[in-house]
Q: What sequence folds into this?
């Protein structure tokens, strides 16, 4: 579908509730947990129970064609391999590491002095930097093509409601972001870069306008406050005016998000692996919504305590790992922050959760950016009618989550439409 036909919607962002205070640091958890999967791919262990590990030491590695490592965020001892809740909504085996609070850094870690395409790619790969906008895709892969990119686009749209980590990072670490962008430009060969940000993010835009003056070839692109403004295809279309089929590189673009560019900066300048990140903990179920800088592998329950606890311990609460549109519901708060989890929304269950019946309001069809009829697709999927699913163009679903978000009965429409899409694409 040509992107000109995509519908976009303004949503209540609820962003103000987590931006009142600066990013709070919580870098001393007693235990951290490193999942033995990344992007659903199982990793190979590099440590055993009883081993001592340095902060920044590789503890497991993904060994397929998207090879990269995961690192220990603390120095300490490997104490167990345990199944814990993962942002994918599943229990996953993880490496448990007990923090010795000594922060002893892996002695092999050092910054880069010779900045070339190859050295930056190697450094970013070694540091285990992945797409921190939620994809978890290894970042260095995007820099590999020999043909120079035409433009680097920094996705700062942060278009799902509630999430504010990138916004806060721009306000607090604009220089690091801009330095990271220059390294990405070197790695990709792109002569220019732009930071695509929603036009109503006034404070962050002001900070960027000030800081950007010292950097050549980097501009700011303002996008509308709509969903899904941060969807990669949508953003590339808005910035370069072209559509692509599979990858932005088809139209000369490389897209990274804000936190990824900052992680690239830290990898290049300090050799720092991806062991920390900023996470938004927010929602109507938590007392003090805010952003935290944490070690990867920290349990969300630690942060819930730091944020004052739940609003009402008596009311049933659930968590959404990720944004409210595309995240996964989790019922326990011993969820672990992994390398691509950027936000956790705490919600109080409302009556709508208890109503699985369709009210026939038509809202799901009204909001669908690609003009599908989600409830009809769900019913057809339930009836296993693959032929009709095709007629309903289920393969056009972009899995944006709007239909589930808007549905007053809280029917899991996105889950159904993405399953239907997979079925049609399979043929
Ligand atoms: S997730 Fe729902 S709203 Fe989004 S494209 Fe698919 S069917 Fe449409
Ligand atoms: S939004 Fe929900 S209740 Fe309304 S028509 Fe769609 S599925 Fe039914």
A:
């Amino acid at each position: 579908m040509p992107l000109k036909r995509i519908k976009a919607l303004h949503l209540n962002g609820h962003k103000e509730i987590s931006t009142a205070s600066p990013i709070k640091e919580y870098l001393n958890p007693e235990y951290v947990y490193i999942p033995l999967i990344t992007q659903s791919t199982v990793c190979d262990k590099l440590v055993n129970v009883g081993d001592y590990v340095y902060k920044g030491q590789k503890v497991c590695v993904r060994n397929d064609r998207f090879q990269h490592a995961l690192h220990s965020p603390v120095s300490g001892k490997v104490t167990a391999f345990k199944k814990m809740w993962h942002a994918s909504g599943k229990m996953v085996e993880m490496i448990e590491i007990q923090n010795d609070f000594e922060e002893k850094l892996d002695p092999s870690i050092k910054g880069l002095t010779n900045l070339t395409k190859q050295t930056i790619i190697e450094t970013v790969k070694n540091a285990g930097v992945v797409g921190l906008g939620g994809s978890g895709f290894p970042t260095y892969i995007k820099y590999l093509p020999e043909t120079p990119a035409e433009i680097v686009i920094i996705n700062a749209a942060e278009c799902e409601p509630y999430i504010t980590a990138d916004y806060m990072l721009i306000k607090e670490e604009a220089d690091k972001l801009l330095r990271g962008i220059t390294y990405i430009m070197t790695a990709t060969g792109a002569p220019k870069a732009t930071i695509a940000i929603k036009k109503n993010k006034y404070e962050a835009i002001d900070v960027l306008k000030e800081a950007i003056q010292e950097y050549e070839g980097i501009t700011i692109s303002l996008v509308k406050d709509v969903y899904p403004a941060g969807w990669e295809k949508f953003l590339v279309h808005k910035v370069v005016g072209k559509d692509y089929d599979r990858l932005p590189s088809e139209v000369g673009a490389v897209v990274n998000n804000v936190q990824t560019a900052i992680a690239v900066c830290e990898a290049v300048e300090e050799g720092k692996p991806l062991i920390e990140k900023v996470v938004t903990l927010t929602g109507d179920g938590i007392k003090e919504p805010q952003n935290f800088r944490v070690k990867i592998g920290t349990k969300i329950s630690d942060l819930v305590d730091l944020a004052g606890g739940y609003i009402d311990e008596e009311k049933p609460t659930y968590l959404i790992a990720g944004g409210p549109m595309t995240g996964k519901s989790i019922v326990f708060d011993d969820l672990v922050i992994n390398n691509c989890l950027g936000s956790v929304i705490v919600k109080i269950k409302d009556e709508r959760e208890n109503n699985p019946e369709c009210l026939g309001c038509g809202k799901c069809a009204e909001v669908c950016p690609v003009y599908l009829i989600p409830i009809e697709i769900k019913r057809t999927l339930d009836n296993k009618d693959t032929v009709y699913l095709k007629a309903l163009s289920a393969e056009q679903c972009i899995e944006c989550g709007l239909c589930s978000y808007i549905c007053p009965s809280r029917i899991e429409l996105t889950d159904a439409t993405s399953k239907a899409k997979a079925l049609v694409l399979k043929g």
